[in-house]
């Protein structure tokens, strides 16, 4: 736990992202997400860019809403964006995630912790347009997820294909884009491969995520700071609602390439 406390202090005290949405943490009541990122333009026209971030998530216990109760996930993500024209943008990414799952040992009345590791590849295509001051973005994202236990062995469902569809609206609150608001709604569908039968499950709806972010960009600084909220609706026997708080800090163009 000490390691995660140190990470959080560094994230909150180093003004480095903006709008790195929280990852889903499953059947929890509440959670918190802290990320810092580095965004870099890779060509003179600013049509090709890199975004790297590290994030830490904490979550509550089953019987409370303490969103910093225990460590939940560590994420390292690298994504490249290519702006095709003023409306279309594509991106490609690779991600490593280490997630902790907690269960109660009824016999010993103690909590068991299982670690799951994930390697993720994904690609996304986004279309953006403006209506007045409001920027509307529609995004389709396809993911390939490989799951392993703490010993790098296959889990019960080691491979998953997941599709995500997202609608997002953003608006600048001033002429200099110093303050802005962004709202998004996303639905997720997936199919998983069974490690024993080697059969794929039905491709179906799994969850929905609704986000609201406020972003602040101090004048004459390369920093973007976002705070936000996410509501995660998980489809199981009945729909479960989880609440997330988020803090993201991004350092933009730290290397003056051009």
From TrEMBL:
InterPro entries: DUF2490
Pfam family, one: DUF2490
Annotated keywords: Signal
Domain of life: Bacteria
Leader sequence segment: 1-18
Protein name in UniProt: DUF2490 domain-containing protein
Organism of derivation: Faecalibacter rhinopitheci
């Amino acid at each position: 736990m000490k390691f995660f406390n140190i990470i959080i202090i560094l994230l909150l005290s180093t003004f480095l992202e903006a709008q790195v949405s929280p990852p889903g943490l499953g059947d929890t009541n509440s959670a918190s997400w802290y990320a810092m990122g580095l965004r870099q333009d890779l060509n003179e026209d600013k049509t090709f860019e890199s975004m790297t971030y590290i994030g830490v998530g904490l979550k509550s216990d089953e019987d409370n809403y303490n969103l910093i109760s225990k460590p939940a996930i560590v994420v390292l993500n690298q994504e490249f964006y290519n702006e095709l024209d003023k409306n279309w943008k594509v991106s490609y990414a690779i991600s490593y995630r280490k997630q902790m799952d907690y269960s109660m040992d009824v016999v010993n009345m103690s909590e068991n912790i299982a670690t799951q590791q994930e390697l993720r590849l994904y690609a996304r295509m986004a279309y953006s347009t403006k209506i007045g001051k409001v920027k509307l973005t529609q995004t389709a994202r396809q993911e390939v997820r490989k799951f392993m236990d703490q010993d790098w062995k296959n889990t019960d469902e080691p491979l998953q294909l997941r599709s995500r569809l997202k609608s997002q609206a953003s608006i600048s609150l001033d002429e200099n884009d110093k303050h802005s608001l962004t709202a998004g709604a996303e639905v997720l569908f997936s199919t998983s491969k069974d490690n024993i039968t080697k059969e794929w499950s039905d491709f179906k709806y799994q969850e929905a995520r609704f986000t609201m972010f406020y972003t602040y960009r101090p004048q004459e600084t390369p920093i973007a700071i976002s705070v936000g909220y996410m509501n995660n609706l998980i489809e199981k026997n009945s729909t479960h609602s989880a609440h997330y708080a988020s803090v993201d800090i991004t350092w933009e163009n730290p290397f003056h390439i051009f």
